[in-house]
């Protein structure tokens, strides 16, 4: 990986902002991801993210922290102990430059011997598991990182709306993937292209089923304005 995402974030942090990130998926055309958006404050965040930050408590693990905006709010405004992890070296370097006390280059799937009260997966954070077949193992790992009484706060989107609707109200969904929410993601920045990677948009019912299969409760906390939602997952009481 070239870490173009991290390179772009670090460029912005260091005053070298001249271009935005270009994203594209297997079911959508090129789109612009403005770098300033990744550095937004609480007041500029969508309602789902605000709600998640309001609900965060105790020790927090921010998975896929990016530029660290969520972590920074929790550390500075709510005075919580936050561990911010991302596989992007550029992102983590940016987080440290912004003042985050515990930012690490790490894969959450390899973390062990640590426990948290709140695990955050924001900006379609569940997507990092790539394929629906991976969601069980993903949730099992997150569950193992929770303290008793801990919670996982995750947002995602049901992208069924992106597929054509027929006269009967059904959807024309390609059979290339096992699940319609699986997409291939591409990122380009300053003329360079990242190797495509798998990303998952999971609808709430499917997430709920996966959670229950893993002995976790799943609650729909808030629905967004465009097929997106925030969910809270907690281990079932024994």
Features:
238 residues, alpha/beta, Rossmann fold, seven-stranded mixed beta sheet, five-stranded antiparallel beta sheet, 12 strands, methyltransferase, Class I SAM-dependent methyltransferase, SAM-dependent_MTases_sf, Methyltranfer_dom, methyltransferase activity
Topology:
Blueprint: H1 4-13, E1 21-25, E2 28-33, H2 35-38, H3 47-55, E3 60-63, H4 69-76, E4 82-86, H5 89-97, E5 103-105, E6 116-121, H6 135-144, E7 146-157, E8 182-189, E9 192-193, E10 197-200, H7 204-213, E11 216-223, E12 228-235
Report on this structure:
The chain is of the alpha/beta class. The protein has a domain at 45-174 and 202-235: Rossmann fold (3-Layer(aba) Sandwich). Helices cover 25% and strands 30% of the residues. It has helices at 4-13, 35-38, 47-55, 69-76, 89-97, 135-144, 204-213, and strands spanning 21-25, 28-33, 60-63, 82-86, 103-105, 116-121, 146-157, 182-189, 192-193, 197-200, 216-223, 228-235. It is globular. The model has no long low-confidence stretch (mean pLDDT 93).
Q: Uncertain regions: pLDDT < 50 for 5+ in a row? A: none
| CATH homolog superfamily of the domain at 45-174 and 202-235 | Vaccinia Virus protein VP39
What kind of sheet is the major sheet?
Answer: 7 strands, mixed
Number of strands: 12
Number of helices: 7
How confident overall, as mean pLDDT? 93
InterPro entries: Methyltranfer_dom, SAM-dependent_MTases_sf
GO molecular function: methyltransferase activity
Protein name: Class I SAM-dependent methyltransferase
Pfam family, one: Methyltransf_31
